[in-house]
Write a sequence for this structure.
């Protein structure tokens, strides 16, 4: 139960609007941290020295960055960041990887299913329990399970995009969590095949239903980035199965190709590159974030501008960056190139080792790294939640003789 509590609280504290407007997820996270800390102190759970050292290095670096470059006041204002970081470390270091995958996928399944349910009702003109919520930066019309729209003012008009937010700050953020769940789910299927595990027809049917649900959820976000990452997700899956494609697999591949063509010709993607639409404005803003973001990262390349510092926001303003959608560049801007590059490499290290260096599966490894780098380049999520967990050793597995059966210690 505590493992579920920890995973759920991390998700809601790192991506959901609920984590901004109510203290319940924070209290749940603190409770899980206390229980996990007690289990470690009492000797019921062992944390590897490597993990403990890595956590110390990461959290000390963030602490000194904010304290020295941003100031003690900013450090106190961002105290929940360190609570979240501690929770992420404990989740990665104390929960078995296989258990984490199953529980994370289960949580995302529930969030996805509820979001699809409320989205269908929304299309029918039905809003259940909708109320206006102020986050300090925007106003959301939402209930505890679904966001119906948002605006920067309290006017009667709200953005009615009919897009699936669930309760995340934007659909483009929600798709990242769902795409990650889909990635884990598909990799689990491949691992079972590699280990020649007997899977019942019922389990196969359940797996297919989960895949369809997650894909539909990603499509319902109407996120261009979500579509691109979904295509990469499916491409990675089928390239790993390429050596043993059966008729059913070929049919699914053909269906997937048709789906890709439909997605690439959808209004969501076309409008992204058509002048005048809100999607095009979003596209221009993201291009600005990338191009000007590189210049901003070179303003203080060694130490960075400081996380959440006044100087950081001043430099962003100078370069015309409003909101900064690129998590990768923001990390480099705030913490400097040495730490930012090391942090990102550590996140990608598992895939680089398992696929490219160990088994020379360069295409698969490159596609997986590209998938995550696209997510991190279009949303500031790389040092939050489950994506932060990729840094820690407990989240990394090592391939031996083609099987994912041994963890790195």
């Amino acid at each position: 139960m505590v493992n579920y509590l920890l995973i759920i609280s991390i998700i809601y504290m790192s991506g959901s609007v609920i984590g901004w407007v109510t203290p319940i997820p924070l209290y749940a996270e603190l409770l899980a941290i206390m229980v996990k800390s007690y289990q470690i102190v009492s000797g019921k759970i062992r944390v590897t020295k490597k993990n403990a050292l890595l956590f110390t290095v990461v959290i000390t670096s963030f602490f000194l960055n904010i304290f020295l470059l941003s100031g003690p006041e900013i450090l106190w204002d961002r105290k929940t960041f360190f609570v979240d970081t501690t929770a992420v470390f404990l989740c990665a270091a104390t929960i078995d990887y296989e258990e984490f995958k199953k529980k994370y996928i289960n949580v995302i399944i529930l969030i996805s299913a509820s979001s699809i349910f409320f989205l269908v009702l929304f299309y029918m003109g039905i809003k259940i329990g909708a109320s206006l919520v102020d986050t300090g930066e925007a106003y959301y019309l939402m209930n505890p399970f679904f966001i119906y729209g948002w605006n920067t003012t309290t006017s009667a008009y709200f953005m009615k995009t009919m897009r699936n937010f669930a309760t995340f700050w934007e659909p483009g953020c929600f798709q990242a969590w769902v795409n990650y769940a889909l990635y884990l789910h598909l990799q689990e299927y491949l691992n079972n095949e590699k280990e020649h595990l007997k899977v019942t027809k019922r389990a196969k049917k359940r797996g297919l239903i989960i895949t369809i649900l997650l894909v539909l959820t990603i499509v319902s976000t109407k996120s261009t980035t979500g579509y691109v990452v979904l295509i990469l997700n499916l491409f990675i899956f089928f390239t790993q199965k390429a050596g043993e494609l059966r008729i059913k697999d070929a049919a699914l591949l053909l269906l997937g190709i048709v789906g890709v063509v439909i997605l690439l010709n959808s209004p969501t993607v076309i409008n992204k590159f058509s002048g005048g639409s809100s999607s095009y404005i979003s596209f221009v803003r993201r291009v600005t974030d990338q191009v000007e973001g590189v210049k901003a990262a070179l303003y203080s390349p060694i130490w960075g501008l400081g996380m959440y510092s006044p100087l950081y926001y001043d430099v962003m303003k100078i370069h015309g960056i409003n909101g900064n959608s690129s998590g990768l560049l923001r990390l480099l801007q705030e913490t400097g190139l040495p730490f930012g590059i090391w942090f990102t490499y550590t996140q990608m290290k598992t895939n680089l080792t398992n696929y490219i260096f160990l088994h020379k599966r360069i295409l698969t490894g490159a596609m997986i790294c590209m998938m995550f780098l696209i997510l991190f380049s279009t949303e500031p999520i790389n040092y939050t939640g489950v994506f932060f967990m990729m840094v820690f050793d407990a989240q990394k597995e090592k391939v031996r003789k083609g099987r994912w059966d041994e963890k790195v210690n």
Remarks:
- Residues 97-123 form the longest helix (27 residues).
- The CA atoms of residues 104 and 294 lie 34 Å apart.
- The chain has 18 helices and five strands.
